[in-house]
Structures are given as C-alpha cells and as structure tokens.
Amino acid sequence: YPTWKRTVARRAREDQMKRFCRAQAIQRRLEEIEVTFRELEQQGTKLEKLLRDENESPADLQTQWTNQLLYLVQKKNNLMTEESDLMIAVQELKLEEQQCQLDQKLRSYMNIEEALKTPEDCKAEQETLDQLVEVVNKRNILIQMQEEKRLSEL
C-alpha cells in the first residue's frame, strides 16, 4: 500500500472527523436556538398580555413594556437569521461529505489503468465525475447565496 494512498486515506478520515465535529456543534447550537425561541415566546406572550390587560397603567410603563417587546422581536429575528445560516452550513457539510465520497470513488476508478478498464468501469467513472461536478455546482450555489445574503445585510 503506497505511502501516498495512506496519506490520502488519513487526510480523508481527518476531514471527515472535522465535518462530524462541525455538524455536532451546529446541532447543539440549533438546539440552543430552539430553547431560546421558546423562552422568547413566553416572555413575549407575558408582555403582550400586560399591554392588553393593563390599559390603566402609566404611559411610561406601557412604553417600557413596548420597548421590551420590540427588543424580544429583534432578538428573535437575529436568532432566525442565525438559524438560517446554520441550516445552510448543514447543507454545505452534507455536500462536502458527498464530494469527498465521490472524489474517493473517482480516484479508485482513475487508479485503474486504461487498458484494464471495462466499459462498465468507464461508464461508472463518467457517472461519478458527473455527480461530482453536480455536487460542486450545488456547493457553489450555496456559497453564492451566502454571499448575496451577507451583502444584502450590509
């Protein structure tokens, strides 16, 4: 087993572990966001109820509650943006994993000498290459979406 093959296999495993760790971190953050959403909803419901029921309250108190409610809405919108970014990151990780698998599959076909390849091998190699190009294009679209989103936020 040549050294370069071991190196490629080791790097592929390392990259896979990095993707796995990133996926776990994203999942944890998504769960945290979900919990925070629930808390914000409860706080918002309480504030709305106070605003509706306490019409006789001083105006400055009502203004304070309204400001708190607007702050909660802003916080919720920020979390929704973060959640959207994380969902895009999840898609990107999936495509990255697919790309890695297809790349390894393509390398295995390309390591076969042309004279030894069967017509089925050639067809499978071309299909793998087509799939790899499709995955790369999907990743490119995701990156463009992220860039457009970032520019629109600025």
From TrEMBL:
Q: Where in the cell is it found?
A: Membrane
Query: Where on the tree of life does the source sit, at the highest rank?
Result: Eukaryota
Q: Which residues cross the membrane?
A: none
Keywords tagged on the record:
Coiled coil, Membrane, Monooxygenase, Oxidoreductase
Task: Give GO MF terms, alphabetically.
Answer: monooxygenase activity
List, alphabetically, the Pfam families matched. bMERB_dom
Identify the residues that the record assigns to the BMERB domain, covering every copy: 13-154
Q: What is this protein called?
A: MICA1 monooxygenase
Query: Could you read off the lineage of the organism from its UniProt record?
Result: Eukaryota, Metazoa, Chordata, Craniata, Vertebrata
**Gene for this protein?**
Mical1
